[in-house]
Amino acid sequence: METLTFKLSGETGFFKQPDVNTYQYYTYGHIHKVALLGIFGAILGLDGYNQQNKSDSYPEFYTQLQYMKVAIKPLNEEGYIPKKVQVFNNSVGYASKEEGGNLIIKEQWLEKPVWQIYLLLENLEANLLLRDLKNRLLEKRFVYLPYLGKNDHYANIEEITVDPLEILSPDSPVRIHSLFPKSSGTLVPQDDLFSDDIEELDFKYEERLPLTIDSYSNQYQTIPFIYTNISVKLSETTTLHQANKTNLIFF
Fold this sequence. Notes:
mainly beta, four-stranded antiparallel beta sheet, 3 helices, 15 strands, globular
């Protein structure tokens, strides 16, 4: 078994939370699976939300790619990506009912986000779309330019490799190096925070992130995700993979 691995980064990113706010639009703190599948769809040239017909349950990219498995490893320190509010004008004329048709937009942008992305390569002989995606990434042969949430935020895809993947079955708690669903296991904190044997303090980043979209409304369906250096006692249903001494949970 193998994983296709690449570094994904940008100067800024904006993964809009659907909650309505009168004054400001907010971003999720990390790229999520649906947004990542959107990047893969752009690379393959699949249609997105704007091309979706009313009779379709999902946009084409999600219909075709929803069963692909990914793992996301934050590379910003302790999983925290700084955010900054940007203010700009939308003056297309129909943006606002105010005089002049000008609308002031406030958006919360991620600043210099960077992740290591892992794409699980399985059943390549049968899965032609996955094989095409693998080849296009390795050759950097994209149909559309990928971006981080909106076309204002260009995505950099670098250091693309194919690495062997091993399945582990640990009996004791282990460090997970990627974001993982909270239901994957139970955190086991260090007994003595100030022991001389401890090289770093515990940290934990937790956020509800989209995992799927609903077929009726196409709204995000979110679950809690965690990124931490605290060891995890895995549940019986969780599968742990390892690539280059990096422990990963694919979802």
